UniProtKB/TrEMBL annotation:
Keywords: Carbohydrate metabolism, Hydrolase, Manganese. GO terms for molecular function: fructose 1,6-bisphosphate 1-phosphatase activity. HAMAP family: FBPase_class3 (MF_01854). This is Fructose-1,6-bisphosphatase class 3. The keyword Secreted does not apply. The gene is fbp. Pathway: Carbohydrate biosynthesis; gluconeogenesis. Belongs to the FBPase class 3 family.
Amino acid sequence: MNTKFLDLLAQKYDSEEKVVTEIINLEAILNLPKGTEHFVSDLHGEYQAFQHVLRNGSGKVREKIEDIYKKVLTEKEIKEFATLVYYPEEKIKLIKNEFDNEEELHQWYTVIIERMIKLISYASSKYTRSKLRKALPSQFVYIIEELLYKTDEFTNFKEPYYSKIVQQIISLGQADKLIIGLAYTTQRLVVDHLHVVGDIYDRGPEPDKIMEALINYHSVDIQWGNHDVLWIGAFAGSKVCLANIIRICARYNNLDIIEDVYGINLRPLLNLAEKYYKDNPSFRPKIQPDETISDEEKLQITKIHQAIAMIQFKLESPIIKRRPNFNMSERLLLEKIDYEKNEITIQGKTYEIENPCFATINPEKPDQLLTEEEEVMDKLLFSVQHSEKLARHMNFLMKKGSLYLKYNGNLLLHGCIPLDEDGNMEKMVIEDKAYAGRELLDVFEQYLRYSFAHPEKTDDLATDMVWYLWTGEYSSLFGKRAMTTFERYFIKDKATHKEIKNPYYYLREKEETCRQILEEFDLDPDQGHIINGHTPVKEINGENPIKANGKLIVIDGGFSKAYQSTTGIAGYTLLYNSFGMQLVAHKHFNSKEDVLQNGTDVLSVKRLVDKELERKKVLETNVGEELLKEISILNSLMEYRYMK
């Protein structure tokens, strides 16, 4: 081992005793039960539902409470206590209004603090004291640690001491802050690590709040979804990705995200839209039942929607032409239109164009941008790349994200591994070399990271490849033969709207296919699982999210309200603790107020995916691998400096 490295390490561990202590500590940690992993996917801007799932740990908080108090508290009391742990600030305000005098309130404080301390003690039982200390609210660390010792049967003689601590907390007006701190500590202890298996952005109204929650979360990783990559691409300089995100925001009445949240001025685009476009039923925004919008605003969005859609279609053409290996020439649809007859010919069949909006199209050069359109896109791109908040969010996505992740023996990926009908890994030729399977995903990620690192390059292969990840046939994120956005706007025949999925999506039902994919990623096919997002599970039609004899689990059940009528549920999440995996289905989340007032929760059913024969230890995890490396280095330091 490099002696210079060991000399540097010796500055931190400057005595034999320090090295020995650390080795003992790490070896001991390896024998603790593994922490609970929490998997979520396809959040699509639905912050309110997501943050509730985050706070209740997909039912783990309630489970811990019931383990301790099921025989002690009534169902109503358990609901009240669970809600207090989920939303401590709001619940405390409601409860304080119920008391007639200070004495009753103080009695409630005493009881709740004791319950909270007991819950913390139980939830932290598989962690080191050091890890627990880091999770505690900093201003109360000493006090909480003292109260935690109360659970020791040999400290009964100190009861007046503990009682005095609690009384002083209450009399000094610190009880609310302590309870709030204990609630958030419980949430943190119940889930050790969070996996977000793609698609934070688009459709829903508050992806920025989800990003802020993730940035502040104690331990998280992200597997990019196709919608996330679209936002990354826009920030990295892809105008066609930028056009797509604005179009989707217009479609779902979420332009506030662009303008108000990220500070991107849409006025130039609105001016262009007002000049060239009118009302058009194909481009009116989708309005949720709980949303209100004026006719004037709806018309403005409809015009913006048309303007940016036509710019998007124009911007796609040059990429398709300069990248023949993308194999997308059939998507040069602007060239297939008869603009006099308002007809389009696709694969030999002619269709009438419904609700056309081609005022900015030059039939001789249909993909040619107007000077005004070019200026608008230049201004929009400048605003996007100079948005401080968006920069922070995109940098976090890049830092914590990847196309796939191997974690604790499982493969996490948002979309698919492109396969042919026979189950072979599909090959894509990039710069005269064919790639498939894991190697193809690695190349995609290399291009994406290069594009992000060079935002000044707006039409190089790397930037074009980010757009391909959104819409390409062999993209692991898209997973379909073609994206029929144009057809959905302009052709009435719904047969043209159908997007043919990659064979992966029916072959993943076979255990043999999943085992083959796990082996491709050097994972044990007997122990490993594939954890997927991207495709809503239509439980309403009897679809099972657990596939291939338990080898593959789909956890996109429909956080997005736009999908819930077709899925029948409001999302799946997955839990993986030392005892095994549990899939959790969720009911529709009404509101935080409903939870606070009625104790309503959104959990419906847990399905056992896989039960460990022996409780899994830290030693058998990714964290364990890293600790073993650290132990090896420390042993080398011992031999080098202290055992000569």
